[in-house]
Amino acid sequence: MRPDGCRRTTLWLSRAMSVLTLEPRPAGKRWLVAGLGNPGLPGTRHSVGLAVLGHLARRLGVADTWARDRRCAADLAVASLEDAQLVLLRPRRLMNASGRSVARAAELFGLTAEEVYLVHDELDKPLGKVALKLGGSARGHNGVRSCISCLNSHAMPRLRIGIGRPAHPDTVQAHVLGSFSAAEQELLPLLLERATDMLLDHIRERSQRPSLGPDLSEFLPP
């Protein structure tokens, strides 16, 4: 069953669509890229998805164009990538409720779950490792779980940024919510660069496909 917040989002959208002025659909393809994290807590491991979005915005030349959108409780920036349009999104809700912002933005911009990229931290990968997961379960990540619930789909591609898992289970929460150490911060510039390269390469490749029909190879079981 979808959470009440997600149901309220769907109801709100159905009532508001008649009065909202939506962005026109570009001639090329459009993608939503959402960086998951906790607003107000930059520099923490759990908010590394937001750091990647910041780096991505700088790479695309839109770092000075972030604007708050109250309709989806998020900061938005729109960029061009060759013939495609990228909608960058930083939810202003806490991680566990970030799916409400992502789902609302997806509907406002007329996007399906397959056209939504999630960028988030990954405990089970060491710092410095980046991987693109194509659909599947949340694997214990509450922000991804919220997005799956509110979008009612497991199909979103996820860019997983390794933050490493501590040796003792009772220190996981402190590790995730803590700031990167001085040694880890030295690795961050290269990590953000690699994550951005991987994301843009994948979006370019998908944008060149003749249609947005489902690619079953992308949505294998986890």
UniProtKB/TrEMBL annotation:
<dbReference type="InterPro" id="IPR036416">
    <property type="entry name" value="Pept_tRNA_hydro_sf"/>
</dbReference>
<dbReference type="Pfam" id="PF01195">
    <property type="entry name" value="Pept_tRNA_hydro"/>
</dbReference>
<dbReference type="InterPro" id="IPR018171">
    <property type="entry name" value="Pept_tRNA_hydro_CS"/>
</dbReference>
<protein>
    <recommendedName>
        <fullName>peptidyl-tRNA hydrolase</fullName>
        <ecNumber>3.1.1.29</ecNumber>
    </recommendedName>
</protein>
<keyword id="KW-0694">RNA-binding</keyword>
<dbReference type="InterPro" id="IPR001328">
    <property type="entry name" value="Pept_tRNA_hydro"/>
</dbReference>
<comment type="function">
    <text>Peptidyl-tRNA hydrolase that cleaves nascent chains-tRNAs that are not stably fixed in the P-site of 60S ribosome-nascent chain complexes. Acts downstream of the ribosome-associated quality control (RQC) pathway to release non-ubiquitinated nascent chains from 60S and 80S ribosome-nascent chain complexes. Does not act on ubiquitinated nascent chains, which are cleaved by ANKZF1 for degradation.</text>
</comment>
<dbReference type="GO" id="GO:0000049">
    <property type="term" value="F:tRNA binding"/>
</dbReference>
<comment type="similarity">
    <text>Belongs to the PTH family.</text>
</comment>
<keyword id="KW-0820">tRNA-binding</keyword>
<dbReference type="GO" id="GO:0004045">
    <property type="term" value="F:peptidyl-tRNA hydrolase activity"/>
</dbReference>
<keyword id="KW-0378">Hydrolase</keyword>
